[in-house]
Design goal:
Residues 118-257 form the tRNA/rRNA methyltransferase SpoU type domain. Helix content is 30%, strand content 19%. It is built from 8 helices and 11 strands. The chain has 2 domains: 15-102, Ribosomal protein L30/S12 (60s Ribosomal Protein L30, Chain: A, 2-Layer Sandwich), CATH 3.30.1330.30; 106-270, SPOUT methyltransferase, trefoil knot domain (Alpha/beta knot, 3-Layer(aba) Sandwich). It is elongated and about 65 Å long. It has helices at 15-22, 26-32, 40-48, 82-88, 128-140, 158-164, 178-188, 248-266, and strands at residues 34-38, 53-59, 77-80, 98-102, 106-107, 118-123, 145-149, 173-176, 192-195, 212-216, 232-235. With 273 residues, the protein is of the alpha/beta class. Strands 5-8-7-6-10-9-11 form a 7-stranded parallel sheet, sandwiched between helices. The protein has a 4-stranded mixed sheet with strand order 1-4-2-3.
């Protein structure tokens, strides 16, 4: 039995519409601990992952039933006109549904991990598109978790969600300081390898099996001196002399797939892809 469908919102002054517009601002998202999800695929991925949704705006005529894809989310359905949807949508996705979701933030201590084999660590990442792309690669490689150390970028930025193609909701993501991350890896007895352009060892010389945490630094400045400890092994991705660096998300993808390859050869039970 479908609950009563609320009236279609036609006014830009409606409180729900005004809230959604305010949530396009990062300071408001942090203050209210709410964020927006754009797109059917992303909304469904968030719902499947247990993200708390408060409202789903979708283009519809007044009184029309919820779209078929909203099955299970009917009580959250809020029909709006196409003009209203274009006001709260992000970028060129003016016809895409939009959901208001409750933010969640895990510490590394909250991760339900007992013996992780593959962790991706992003340190002080600035660009939300890079975070999203890295999360997409991490999900494709079946990582156990992603840890953001001292992030300067908001995790649920719309660019991050969009670039992740919904992967941001499919894998555990935690925040930590560098010290907390290193302590956790020591407790889990897994080595930590950091990507550095000036490292002596090449990627292919590293042992990523049976377990590893791979770390990538800030896009402009790389990793700080707090990573220069005995517990950490630096490595570099070999490149032609005509190129001195790779995009962060590409570097992460190359490294993760090498780790996946090594771990599958070491123990077929660790095959992830």
């Amino acid at each position: 039995m479908i609950s009563r469908i609320p009236p279609c919102i036609t006014s830009p002054h409606n409180p729900k519409v005004k809230l959604a517009q305010r949530l396009r601002d990062s300071k408001t998202r942090r203050k209210l601990e709410r964020f927006l999800i754009d797109g059917e695929q992303e909304i469904l991925a968030a719902h499947a992952a247990g993200v708390e949704l408060e409202c789903v705006f979708a283009d519809s005529l007044d009184g029309a039933p919820p779209p078929a894809w909203l099955t299970g989310l009917e009580p959250l359905y809020q029909p709006v006109t196409r003009q209203i949807l274009s006001r709260i949508s992000y970028g060129d996705r003016q016809d895409a549904p939009v959901a208001i979701a409750v933010s969640r933030k895990l510490s590394i201590a909250d991760l339900d991990l007992h013996a992780p084999k593959l962790l991706l660590v992003l340190d002080r990442t600035e660009k939300p598109g890079n975070i999203g792309a890295c999360l997409r690669s991490a999900a494709a490689c079946g990582v156990d978790a992603v840890v953001l150390t001292n992030p300067t970028c908001e995790l649920f930025n719309p660019n991050a969600i969009r670039a992740s193609r919904g992967a941001i909701f499919k894998i555990p993501i935690a925040h930590a300081t560098v010290e907390e991350l290193l302590d956790a890896c020591a407790a889990w007895k897994i080595p930590v390898c950091t990507a550095r352009v000036d490292a002596q060892h090449q990627l292919w010389e590293c042992e990523f099996q049976p377990a590893v945490a791979v770390v990538f630094g800030n896009e402009a400045n790389g990793l700080g001196e707090e990573w220069d400890v005995a517990q950490v092994l630096p490595y570099r991705i070999p490149m032609s002399s005509s190129t001195d660096s790779l995009n962060l998300s590409i570097s992460a993808a190359v490294t993760l797939y090498e780790a996946v390859r090594q771990q599958a050869e070491f123990d077929p039970r660790l095959k992830r892809v």
